[in-house]
Specification:
By secondary structure, the protein is α/β, with parallel strands linked by helices. It contains ten helices and 15 strands. It has helices at 10-21, 43-53, 80-89, 123-132, 152-159, 198-205, 243-255, 266-272, 286-303, 319-329; strands at 4-7, 26-28, 35-39, 62-64, 94-99, 114-118, 136-138, 165-168, 179-182, 189-192, 209-210, 234-238, 260-264, 279-281, 306-310. Strands 1-8-2-3-7-4-6-5-9-10-11 form an eleven-stranded mixed sheet, with helices on both faces. It has a four-stranded parallel sheet with strand order 12-15-13-14, sandwiched between helices. Helix 1 (10-21) crosses helix 4. The longest helix is centred in the last third of the chain and has 18 residues, at 286-303. The protein binds adenosine monophosphate and magnesium ion. Residues 59-62, 97, 109, 112, 114-116, 139-140, 177, 180, 191-192, 220-224 line the site of adenosine monophosphate.
């Protein structure tokens, strides 16, 4: 199969629609990361996503819809706070989980009685979703566990020859996956942190909790239990208090003839002050770090033999989501049994 990369055009949208109606999988740009989409009403099409990605069968998918789509038939109940959140943040990088009416393929939610729905703001995604006028089940368009894609080229690198079309909308400005919010209970609960922060949600809903999995408990958002976002090179991770240790490891790798790189926020990179040392910069603000993280991890796996991550010092807002992705890319925080 030839994998085409097409920018937004009438012809590209018509092709995308034809593929989706034929049960094929199409990758598309969103404002967070690229998605790997299939008709959420078609069992076989949804199963294809799992086999292409090598995604564990118990990690549910998000149904994507355009902003005029009536989600009423798909969900059983929308609490009042969720209506307010929809008004405030949609379209945008917020996925909302509702009690499901089980109208979409049971493979989308992997047997859960809930459905995650997202309305992306990306122009490419909106046009594509309007054209097909169907709920499109889509996880990030990367092989399972690998770094999420923020350019069409990243998608191509993972799926060349295996999907017919990538709808190219340029770089993803958001850079990390959507916030996943459980809206099935009395209060909103964040299952996965992202660009719509706890503070922003609490500002509209009056309150917002962050789900913490207790030891031995089945995770509410199954995807959060897996090792994720990992570059293919060797990695090591240090807190910002351990920079000397990190530097020793860097030197050792150099002496061994390897090509070490640091991954660090700009402030720390300046202090590392190693002449000619290789550093991938994360940025200065939380938003910058979200936008740069995956692109830098993908560059690192091309160029580095060893990537040494240094924990950023910045906290608050989007940093909760950035730190979650960063530590998991370095293999920290996923429960052992599922790595
Ligand atoms: P991805 O699209 O690859 O970013 O992954 C989707 C994320 O949404 C994963 O962390 C899933 O566990 C989560 N998710 C999808 N559907 C549900 C659901 N019904 N309930 C809870 N989490 C969900
Ligand atoms: Mg993913």
């Amino acid at each position: 199969m030839i994998t085409e990369i097409l920018s937004l055009s009438q012809e590209a949208l018509e092709k995308a629609e034809r593929y989706i109606l034929a049960g094929e999988v199409v990758a598309f740009h969103t404002e967070t990361v690229y998605g790997l989409g299939a008709n959420a009403l078609n069992d076989k099409a949804v199963q294809k996503i799992f086999s292409l990605k090598g995604r564990p069968a118990d990690n549910p998918l998000i149904a994507h819809v355009h902003s005029g789509f009536n989600i009423g038939p798909l969900v059983d109940f929308i609490p009042e706070y969720a209506v307010a959140l929809q008004r405030a943040f949609l379209p945008g990088p917020l996925t909302m989980v509702y009690p499901s009416t089980a109208k979409v393929s049971s493979f989308v939610s992997c047997g859960l009685n809930t459905l995650a729905i997202r309305v992306p703001s990306s122009k490419t995604a909106q046009k594509f979703l309007k054209k097909v006028d169907l709920p499109i089940a889509a996880p990030s368009a990367n092989r399972s566990k690998h770094v999420s894609p923020v350019t069409a080229k990243h998608v191509f690198d993972d799926f060349n020859g295996e999907i017919p079309l990538i709808l190219d909308g340029g770089d993803c400005d958001g850079g990390i996956e959507s916030t996943v919010l459980d809206c099935t209970g009395k209060d909103p609960v964040i299952l996965r942190e992202g660009l719509i922060t706890r503070e922003m949600i609490a500002g509209v809903a009056g309150r917002c909790f962050v789900y913490e999995r207790r030891a031995g408990e089945k995770p509410k958002s199954p995807g959060m239990a897996y090792k994720h976002y990992a570059p293919k090179c060797r990695t090591a991770y240090f807190t910002f208090g351990e920079q000397e240790k990190a530097m020793r490891l860097y030197r050792e790798e150099e002496e061994r003839g390897g090509k070490p790189y640091f991954l660090a926020e700009n402030g720390i990179a300046e202090k590392l002050a190693v002449n000619g040392s290789n550093i991938f910069l994360l940025g200065r603000t939380g938003e910058e770090m979200a936008r740069n993280l995956y692109a830098q991890l993908r560059r690192a796996e091309q160029e580095a033999t060893l990537l040494i991550g240094i924990e950023p010092t910045l906290r608050g807002g989007v940093m909760a989501g950035v730190l979650n992705r960063l530590t998991r890319a370095f293999g920290i925080g996923a429960s052992e049994e599922r790595k």
